[in-house]
Amino acid sequence: MTWFRMPRAAAAVIAVAVVASGCAASPTAEPPPPTSPRPTSEPTGTATPPRSGSWTTGGAANTLVGGLAAPWSVVPLPDGGALISERDSGIVRELTTDGSLRTAGTVPGVVSGGESGLHGLALLDGETPWLYAYHGTADDNRVVRMALTGPAGALTLGDVEVVYDGIPRASTHNGGRIAFGPDDLLYVATGDAQNRDAAQNVDALGGKILRLTPEGDAAPGNPFESAVWSYGHRNVQGIAWTSDGTMWASEFGQNTWDELNVIEPGANYGWPVVEGVAEDSRFIDPVVVWSPSESSPSGIAAVGETVFVAGLRGERLWRWDAASGTLDTVFSGQGRLRDVIEGPDESLWVLTNNTDGRGAPRPEDDLLVRLPLAAG
Questions:
Q1: Upstream peptide bond of 88 is cis (omega within 30 degrees of 0)
Q2: Which of 12, 82, 228, 367 has the fewest CB atoms lying closer than 10 Å?
Q3: Longest Cα pair distance anywhere in the chain, in angstroms?
Q4: At residue 96, what are phi and psi to the nearest 5 degrees?
Q5: Position 322 in a domain
Q6: Quick check: 258 and 289 in contact, CB under 8 A?
């Protein structure tokens, strides 16, 4: 059973059963066929304007690359390639525009174990492009950055600089998604690191979304005069912004409800006092909740007014249309899904995650799959 809120003007929470007719793709035993080298995106020196309206997937899925090992995050490059993090090894892979896969480097200091290791990536483009990474060490989780050197297709990671450290680490609940927002500031999702009460303590870093300058300082205008942007989270692993500037975050629940939330500065999202919808004025209720078996949400992507959510245990890509308040499944059949991004070529790129010790990997796994986008 999946629950969701209608558009914000509606006060009621409505229950709906997700049935097979709501799925736009049925499970398949084989991975999508490999695609030919995709068209590259020519760097223009300016950001691509965000899309508006509602979006879905349309057309055949294609495999961009296979043979990844416990991949966690993917970020597109201006030339049409991508960088992919591998959790357990700390390696960053470069997918080139001709479809080949190479090693850009290994992030130093990564200590993997349990759910920890090398997690989210974010790219700050410029005269000197910087790759930001969230990873576990022996003692904490931290955000670091490395200059990207060399031409596209032969990128190399430069020396590591610590941006922000001291984020609590545990075998589970490490958060790990990072992204630059529309304000050009760095947002960092942390988990409660198995210390439930820390999520309600605004002076602690666990169970939070942080907002930082690119250099790692608490961003001006933060609600608590610290790095904390929002709190009361259990384990956020997806953050994205729809075209109206609304920030969204996906969150793993305990045993009852996973969540998709609209994030507001200074707001309390309830964990561990409540899980799911509380209808309590102290907390912000989620827009969508799922049972963990339906979702276990990780990375999310926002295109126009549509949010796409990658499900691990649910093994599907959910689509939430914020404009109409509708929810459906648009991709499934490839096992656990860890991340989804808007690609540079009118598409979504979806990262499978079957080789992390919890999935059932096939010889081709793990994959980065391309799904064409369609308006509507």
A1: no
A2: 12
A3: 54
A4: -90, 170
A5: no
A6: yes
Q: Does any domain span residue 26?
A: no
Across the range 34-51, mean pLDDT stands at 52
Please state, in angstroms and rounded to a whole number, the distance separating the CA atoms of residues 74 and 321: 23
Residue-range definition of the domain harbouring residue 176:
2-6+71-302
Tokens of 70: 């416990």
Cα–Cα nearest to 229, from 190, 264, 272, 194: 264
**Domain tally, the chain:** 1
Considering the domain boundaries, does residue 315 fall inside one? Answer: no
Side-chain-facing half-sphere of 229: CA atoms under 13 Å: 23
Tokens of 112: 């993997």
DSSP codes of every residue in 212-262: E-TTSSBPTT-TTSSSEEEE--SBEEEEEE-TTS-EEEEE--SSS-EEEEE
Residue 213: both structure tokens together:
């300058």
Task: Give the Cα separation of 267 and 313 in Å (integer).
Answer: 28
Sheet containing strand 130-136, edge to edge, reads 118-124, 130-136, 141-149, 156-167
Please give the C-alpha separations between residue 215 and each of 132, 212, 348, 350, in angstroms, as whole numbers.
Answer: 11, 8, 30, 30
Q: Is the pLDDT of residue 35 over 70?
A: no
Question: What's the start-to-end Cα distance of the chain, in Å?
Answer: 25
Sheet holding 82-86, edge to edge: 71-76, 82-86, 91-95, 101-106
SS3 state at 1: coil
CATH of the domain at 218: 2.120.10.30
Whose CA is closest to 75, among 32, 123, 107? Answer: 123
Bridge partners of 150, per DSSP, are none
Report pLDDT for 49: 62
**Against a cut of 0.85, is the pTM above it?**
yes
Task: Give the chain's count of helices (H) and strands (E).
Answer: 0, 27
Instruction: Please tell me the distance from the alpha carbon of residue 278 to that of residue 259, in angstroms, as a whole number.
Output: 12
Q: Look at residue 340 and tell me if it is in a domain.
A: no
Which amino acid type is present at position 110? V
Report the pLDDT value the prediction gives residue 39, as an integer from 0 to 100: 44
CA-to-CA dists, residue 282 to 96, 106, 285, 290, angstroms: 48, 43, 10, 22
Residues comprising the chain, all counted: 376
Measured CA to CA in angstroms, residue 199 lies from 174, 251, 298 at distances of 12, 13, 19
Residue 200 has pLDDT above 90, yes or no: yes
Q: Are 373 and 348 in contact (CB under 8 A)?
A: yes
